[in-house]
Each structure stands twice: as C-alpha cells, then as structure tokens.
Amino acid sequence: MLRTIKIDWNHLADFQTLETPFPRPERIHPGLDEINPETFPAYLDEIGLVGMGGSGFPASTKIKANRGSHTLVINGIECEPGITIDKAVLLNDFLWVAAGANACAQAIGATRIILAVENNPELIQQLEKRYGEFQITGFSGRYPSGAEKLILKKLTGKFPPPGTRPFEFGFLIQNAVSLRAVGRAIIDGIPVVERPLTLAMPSVGFYKNLIAPVGITIQELFEIYNLPYDAAMHLISDSGLMMGREVSQFSTIEKTTLSILVLQRDEAFREERPCTRCGACNIACPLGLHPFTLTEKVRKGKTASATFKAQMTECFLCGVCAAVCPSGIPLVESLKKGKQCL
Ligand code: SF4
Ligand code: SF4
Question: For the structural domain made of 194-268, what CATH number should be given?
Fold first, then answer.
C-alpha cells in the first residue's frame, strides 16, 4: 500500500466520461445465443473472464459455486478511493452491464438483481433511467463499503460470520466491470481484451476514465496522453492507493487493473514512527480486527495460533488501518506477510 492520502483530487473528472483513443476490437468470438446454465461457466472461460474488480478470480468457478443463489448483486461501488471507473461504466456502458447481469442471473437461477452503488442522489437518478428493471440500493461512499462482506451486511442485516462466502446466503456479487465484459462478449462477440480504468496524474490535474487494450504498456498510455512522467520524481500505483502496488512504466495493463495513478514520489511515503497505541487502526478496521496486534505477531513470528490464522483469513487487506495510522506504520505490508502463513 502507498501510505498517502494527501492527494489533491480537485481536478477529479466528471465520472460520466469514458473514452478510448484506441480502435475498438473487431468481432472475434461468437456471441452466446442462449444462456445455458450448464455451458455458461465454460463460456466465461472461453472469453477469458476473471474478476475485474481486482481479484482476478476465475469467473467460471464463482458462477458454478453460486448456482441456486436467489440474488445477483451488481457491485458498482468503487473498489478504491479516488477512482470513478465503476460509475463511468455503469452510466456509459449500461447495455453491456445489464446484459451481463441478466445472463449471470439466468445462469445461476437468480430471480432478483440489485444494483449496489454509492448513495449519491444525482447518480442514482441517472441510473434509474438506465436500469429501471433492477433494484437500486445506495451504500455509503466511504471506502471500503464495496467489500463483499460489507455489502452482505447491508443486504442481510447481519455481518456474515468469519469464513463464510456470499453464496452461502444466496448472493452472487459481481463487479460492474466484469458484468460489462460478459455483456460485451454476448452482444458484440468481443472477449475480454479491453480494460476500463481510471488514469490520473493529480499533480498536473489529469484525470480520465478510459478503455485500454489489455497488454498495452503504461508507458504507451503516458505517450498517448502526453503525461510528463519522470521515473526519478514519480511513482506509479497500479490499482489504487489502498490495495494497489508500485509498478514501472514498462508494466502492462491487465484485466484486473482498476487504475493507474501517477504520484509525486516525495509525497507518497511517510516516515515510520513507533506505535502510540492510539487505537485508530482498531476503530477503522471494518471487520473489527486489531491490526497492530496482528502486525506485532507477524513481526515476532508468532503466527501459529488458530486465532491468528482465523483473523488473517478474514482480513482482506483493504488498507484502511494503515491509511489512518498517524505513525505511518506499514500495517498492510505486515498483514500481507501474515497471509503467507495461512
Ligand atoms: S487491512 Fe487492516 S483495516 Fe483492512 S481488514 Fe485488514 S486489518 Fe482490517
Ligand atoms: S493507528 Fe498506528 S499508532 Fe495507532 S494503534 Fe494503530 S498502529 Fe499504533
């Protein structure tokens, strides 16, 4: 995680824009005439769909596990703060999103589709015109309210017990960009070869939502948009400030790339100081975990207990604890190491 939240987002672009400077791909894959629950998972493998909300989990496996779920949730709550790509896709590519949602719902036998979005009256009003057939539910826009467990908590009224998955409660939660990809394949015969993402360089007021071909390098994107990237001055965060990672300009856009943020190197990191036991990380953790205690255990190698493992299984590395820590302790880096002990 990049330990900074000091970014000037004053230049945040209108999320209604979604453009592409690239030629659109030709039809290269047969569309699906009929949704057959038996063959649909194999179809998702054929088009190359993985979780485009960042997980990269094979979509076919998720669909198979969700057979019999009563509700499909379109997750349109942004995966990371400062990113607006899910909203842009929902507003601009609604025919594809709706087609993908209907296909997945049919494949698992769901009878209800809920569109989960930030509780923004202007946004919801516009979405109602596009998704009249679905139930639209507003959620807090505060990160990480798009996490599956927090969506489930709001929809079921209860926090899902540790170790449980949404399908155990009858819900399939799919990111809006993943559903767009399903609809694109069904309607246009285009498999997963393009990636909607947010590209931002706040220091020069650049902020865009765009569709890029999967496999293009970040350097090529910089050249297309004339971004003054300098490796000595800037760092590139792939997929957000909270759960993202630093990459080089020669890295490529993947199916799971949510965003590319170009940050000032000198603003992006804070000095680490000793823990003051202020408790802010405990209060901030949406799962009620004790991040610093877990971090201490990782640092001291005390990772064998069942309690530690259960808590590490629950932690989804959202990064909120590290973001609020006034001592700049890299909690998420330790928690990532803790996950390796599972
Ligand atoms: S990363 Fe931190 S805040 Fe997020 S779930 Fe894990 S312990 Fe909690
Ligand atoms: S927020 Fe930081 S300083 Fe406060 S208890 Fe947690 S780790 Fe310690």
Answer: 3.10.20.90
Measure 331 CA to ligand 1 centroid, in angstroms: 9
| pLDDT tens readout for residues 261-276 | 999 888 776 688 999 9
Between the CA of 275 and the centroid of ligand 2 the distance, in Å, is 5
> What is the spatial distance between Cα 161 and Cα 306, in angstroms, rounded to a whole number?
16
Closest-CA residue, ligand 1 atom 5, reads 315
| 15-27 pLDDT per residue, tens | 778 888 888 888 8
pTM: 0.89
Q: Which residues pair with 206 in a beta bridge?
A: 201
Q: Which fold has domain 40-188?
A: Rossmann fold (3.40.50)
**Ligand 2 lined by 323 (C-beta under 6 Å):** no
Ordered by start, the domain boundaries in the chain are 40-188, 194-268, 280-339
In this structure, are strands 112-118 and 71-75 parallel, antiparallel, or unpaired? Answer: parallel
